Amino acid sequence: MQLKISRSLFSLTEVRTVEVQADMGRYIDLSQLAFQFGGKSLSEWKKWTTGSNFNGDPFITIVEKPHFVGDTGVVKATLKFDLLFNRESLAERSIRTQYQQFIGSYELAMTDPQTKMKASATVQLNVYDEFLFYDELKPTIDQIFKQAHQKNNRYLKYQSLGKSIEGRDLHFVILAKSKAVVDRYLNITLPTALEQPEKLIHQLDNGLIGEYQVPIWFNNIHPDEIEGPDAQVELLRKFALEDKLTVPIVRNGQKETVSLDVNEMLDHVIFLFMFTNNPDGRAANSRRNANGFDLNRDNHLQTQPETIVVTQEIANWTPLSFLDMHGYISRFLIEPTTPPHNPNYEYDLLYNNMIRQARAMGEAGLGNSDFKSYVIPALDYKDGWDDMSVGYTPMYAMLHGSLGHTIEIPALSQDGFHAMVGIGLGAALFVQEKKDQLYKNQLEIFKRGVNGEDNRSVDPYLVNASRKSIGRIRGEHTNFFPDYYVIPIGSKQQVNKLEAYKMVQYLLRNGVKVEKLIDNTVVNGITYSKGTFVIPMKQAKRGVANAMLYKGDDVSDWKAMYDSTIVNFPDLRGFTVHEIRNTDAFNQNTIRIRSTGLPKGNIYTAATFHVLANTNNDTIKLVNILLKNGAVVEKALETRGLINKGDFIVRTNDLQHFGKNYYFIARYLYTSIPVKTMQLKQTKVSVIGSTQLKFAVSELGFDMVKQADADVIVSDSSSIIVSYLTGKTFVGIGFEPLKAVKSRGLLPGFNIDQTKNGHEGLVKAKIKNHLLTSGYQTDEVLYTTSGMWITSVPAGAEVLASLSNSNDFFIAGWWPGHENAKGQILAFTHSFNNTTFTLFANDLAFRAHTHNSYRFIANCIYDS
Ligand SMILES: [Zn+2]
């Protein structure tokens, strides 16, 4: 029998009552009637108390007892669904991980045990009404498209930008007035803006620009901060289907409403919806992607497939306004941020408009919810909520001239959802109203780039911890930006051709203009061969290029820093870049390129053996492939002639079979091997600790086994099981394992000192000649985020690396107190009690960015 219900949707974040009724017959005993929800009696539904315990007060109560309606047999009652977790916001992490098990369909039933009569209805329980699981997103988008096509002729375009690690689509939707509007923006307006910004500025100033649209990009990257994707679906629904919207706002404490005409809006705006950058995280209710990476720390490093495709699309669109929808900070937070600011933004052209946009979003966020206030870190915080890192999605977008905002709603709730929808409406209204002025500033950003201008107006925004303006750090130069970056390709000039080519691919993908020399060219006494890559810095996207290629800044004077600030691809990926400061260096000698492949190794079939230099990660991958396929790989144990200690010697035949797709540098042997070698075996490796370390080791092609079965344990974890160490090599990387080895007294004579874990530095280091450091030079740049150094090593231990003793050993980063680390030991190896300990105080695989340090790990593994 059908149970009639006054509502069918229940909420984990809002109290709901429901009237139920059914014709049960005139003569039943009302006192015996019972209710069930999801097949369980109401008494079995108890509220959450702690942990995963649901043993509190009743979740569902009867507020109006069953009674007959008049003289009929119709029975009516009212039930109340209270807050299952005893609170409206489920943002608390211990709850956030477990509420989703309750979302779904339930049978709500009224039964009479005597007559066995049952009236029932299917109802839904959701966290808030609009929440969608990943699998519901696409059908909902399709449904909106279908309705829109019946209602109006707005242009709606769905694209899957690519696949996540687990193979889910990255849903992306374009909404505009028409296809022509999108084509004009992408094919005419944007290219003109990037190449001839002055032309468009002139048109704007003189009222000649005509109709034009600017993109607003809605984004979510932490999908367990759930409102982001759902608010976007709601905004898509409104903008695709409605003609007029009423937007409630709170301005100066007063509630008002503003009307929004969607057709007029679409005369000015193209909406872009990136529902979530992390589909696997949406499916798993997790912040991180399936590889365990926080993608909101990877937009600049781009080690993960999801960030690679999303950043490419951001570069492609160059949105004017960029909203990244997050939660849950206890106060409703809308950026812009505190200092320090990354010097590669044109901050003065962004700041005031970002403050205004933040206010417009805040007013509509409050208007559309019950939240009472919001904060803007730039105005309300001292430090610690900064945009020095360009790894957050909005900060990455700011390099493209976007007004980039992270928005943190304070609650995971129905109200949080409404606030986030308000945010989107507020931003749209703001962009519509201020479009000309906002666009002009974006054009001014591009103009500075195109003209190579280092405008001093940015300097007041770039302050030190005492709030004194330090501006861009220009050193001896008058322009912060060089005229060119050159990425040499000749083997004498380029230390790592593979990483160099990968950087060129990266720059092209990220909207940076790259050229190639068409003739050998001499600059500052150096001959650059034909084919050398040149990045002309007089270009609109020079901020993107410079943020990735420049040395970085020393921000150690700050008390707090939100996250890692070091990018520096050349030093961390390990390739050569030259900075050129000579405007005319390459006049007429270059052509623009749109793509490049990757280099491959040369196989010389007349040789018996190839000696592979141990100088890039592809070579390590190749060696691992050869070992897996049973090929003999010898490792040189000494340096003689052109063979270096640590090089790999392989048979030409094997290389022909397995080496065609790899990059390597080879020398050739025709008869025998003239140096002492050892034959490599397939080492059993166990990796303990971060998913990022595991990712890096598997990137190199090592297979992993359990600790007990391993020859070598590579760890960045504090957990050490001593019984597993006997007969093995233990490679400890960074703060946690070194601290553990020390505090548990596993290695007498070993001692450490530190400022604080998390203190980060790009440092000059001295590398000692050793089999474990083979392939590295005496002078290398290393990376640390452990704020630690080694103060003593056991007698007889071999030191592998130290921090340089020069006063300028610290290149960039946030490491208060780094002075104490000058000249100290970073790494050593020592055998004790039948275990070889190789300990690095610094990080070798940080966020899979520090490719240049990976070979230390490989050397340790091969030598175990
Ligand atoms: Zn977040």
Automatic annotation (TrEMBL):
InterPro entries: Peptidase_M14. Residues 142-300 form the Peptidase M14 domain. It holds the Pfam family Peptidase_M14. This is M14 family metallopeptidase.
